[in-house]
Amino acid sequence: xxxxxxxxxxxxxxxxxxxxxxxxxxxxxxxxxxxxxxxxxxxxxxxxxxxxxxxxxxxxxxxxxxxxxxxxxxxxxxxxxxxxxxxxxxxxxxxxxxxxxxxxxxxxxxxxxxxxxxxxxxxxxxxxxxxxxxxxxxxxxxxxxxxxxxxxxxxxxxxxxxxxxxxxxxxxxxxxxxxxxxxxxxxxxxxxxxxxxxx
Length: 199
Hints:
Helix content is about 45%, strand content about 20%. By secondary structure, it is α/β, with parallel strands linked by helices. Helix 1 (about 10-30) packs across helix 6 and helix 2 crosses helix 3. The model has no long low-confidence stretch (mean pLDDT about 95).
């Protein structure tokens, strides 16, 4: 902002993120491109008030983000809620295979959803750590943004900020219709259009 001759206090930027990040995510969702049926699911740690919390993330075989979910717990219930959220997303395909790490909570959640008829019977859960390298590498962009901040002060502010990080990353990956990977001009135009702002 300073490069453009505008003096803006960092707390103003913070308030903008808190207000607009969830709204940007909500407005972008209908424009997401369809993803593949091969899922990679994993969680990464985010510090909130000096406590570790868990950001569940899923990507497809091409590295496109399927969905994300922030939780204070790392258990089967949190995984079930995340998988339900991901299955409900309009841009995701029913999973043919879900690759996860050796966390024992994944089979519990997977089997419960399959028994309830939420996951298709042909879906397979694979607990092979090296198959999840793609999602673990994808966590790096989150870590690069959260580490310098030294953690968040509340669950709500963390979640709103993470929504902004995730949707901007999806945009950069070229996951939104009509905007290619690396098309910064297209990204700016799309955001302006979504918020009804003239460019």
